[in-house]
Amino acid sequence: MYDLVDYVVVDISKSEEAQKQIIELLSMSELDLDPQVTTFIVAKSNNYIIACAGIDRDIIKCVAIHPDYRGNQLNLTLIDKVIKYANENGYFHLFLYTKPENKDFFKGCGFYPIVEIPNLIVLLENTPVGIKQYCKQLSIERKEGNKIGSIVMNANPFTKGHQYLIEYAANQCDWLHVFVVNENASLFSFDVRLQLVKDGCKHINNVKVHASSTYIISRATFPSYFLKDKAKIDYAFMGIDLLIFRNYIAPTLNITHRFIGTEPFSEITRSYNEAMYYWLQDQNVSQNPAVNVVEIERVLEGHSVISASLVRKLLASNQYDQVKKLVPSTTWAYLAKHFVESKN
Questions:
Q1: pLDDT digits over 68-104, tens only?
Q2: Do 236 and 97 meet the contact criterion of CB atoms below 8 Å apart?
Q3: Predicted confidence (pLDDT) at residue 276 exceeds the cutoff of 80
Q4: Which of 11, 246, 269, 311 is 20 to 30 A from 254 in CA distance terms?
Q5: For residue 286, what are the contacts with CB-CB under 8 A and spacing of at least 6?
């Protein structure tokens, strides 16, 4: 019977029928269609889709098997086809999020758990040494000291607020590690943001600026298609990201503290800051040492809190004199060249 199954790649943005069938198949597994996924590897029998797996760059998503075909070789073959397709497109290190009850199935397909949020989600990768290899590379930057700090920032773009946070934390610590989130879902590309942070920190001797890896999870790539409740989505995202930091990154770099700025505007960021106290400090969520969270007041310019979102808003309305007040000279040099001069 399985000899009659065909495996094909479909782009659901170009096929309404394929999209309809995949949505129906996902619903049988109580899953929704992830809006970020358009490419699927599907198994077809009698021209009807009986299994599917989506691929979003290096993340496998939306895996579903028709109930009549579960528990057989088709499952393994489907995952093999997805991995082969990803490899052909340059992605060899793959990640997969799933419900905890599906963990053993994917372990049988060659995936290895990294962290798990009980009853909600598991993050796996297709190598037993991925996170270990990353930590080995990261360990080169390990510094000894009684107080080793850390900051994770998007810096879209790098402002005087970011600079103040780094200067404050560096002054409190023996050494400070700054991670710039590696994603290109921002106005400023990752390469630009990373360089602006490095340029804005050159005067500080005890700071290392890191290009963050895929192990610092981006909200832009975090899947939510199998978590119906927004509160659970946020809880799971924050837990995955912060547990990876506490269980792997912090011990590798001897990090004892994580510094954050207060968040008066963004409810999402404010909730994330609050979650840090639980995931990084609570003794019951991890066997690894706690990472102490230090929250400092955001810096002001006049009566306004300095924020990257305000800078972007001012840039969009060509209020360059106001922008100049909110960013370091290093950032302004870039903005002047790429925004101001380009419009003159």
A1: 888 778 888 999 999 999 999 999 999 999 989 999 9
A2: no
A3: yes
A4: 269
A5: 243, 246, 247, 279
149 against 273, higher pLDDT: 149
Own/partner long-range contacts of 104-109 (Cβ < 8 Å, ≥24 apart): 105/75, 106/79, 108/76, 109/75, 109/76, 109/79, 109/80
**CA of 209: how far to CAs of 25, 74, 151, 201, 276, in Å?**
45, 45, 9, 8, 21
How far is the C-alpha of 38 from the C-alpha of 42, rounded, in Å?
Answer: 12
Token pair recorded at residue 151: 């900051």
Q: What are residue 153's DSSP bridge partners? A: 180
Which residues are paired to 11 by β-bridges?
Answer: 39
341 — pLDDT class (breaks 50, 70, 90):
low
At 50, list the tokens.
């009986």
Residue ranges per structural domain of the chain = 2-128, 133-343
Q: Which of 69-78, 220-229, 300-309 has the lowest mean pLDDT?
A: 220-229
Give the CATH number of domain 133-343.
3.40.50.620
Task: Show the tokens assigned to 174.
Answer: 């023996």
For the stretch 15-71, pLDDT in tens is: 999 999 999 999 998 888 988 899 999 999 988 999 999 999 999 999 999 998 887
**28 Cβ contact partners less than 8 Å away, ≥ 6 residues apart:** 64, 66, 67
Q: Determine whether 327 is exposed, middle or buried from the number of CB atoms within 10 Å of its CB (0-12, 13-18, 19+).
A: buried
Spatial contact of 225 and 194, defined as CB atoms under 8 Å apart: no
Same fold, 2-128 and 133-343: no
DSSP3 helix / strand / coil % (the chain, rounded to 5): 45, 20, 35
Q: Which CATH class, in words, describes the domain spanning 2-128? A: alpha beta
| Distance set, CA 23 to CA 2, 32, 53, 81, 198 (Å) | 23, 7, 12, 20, 45
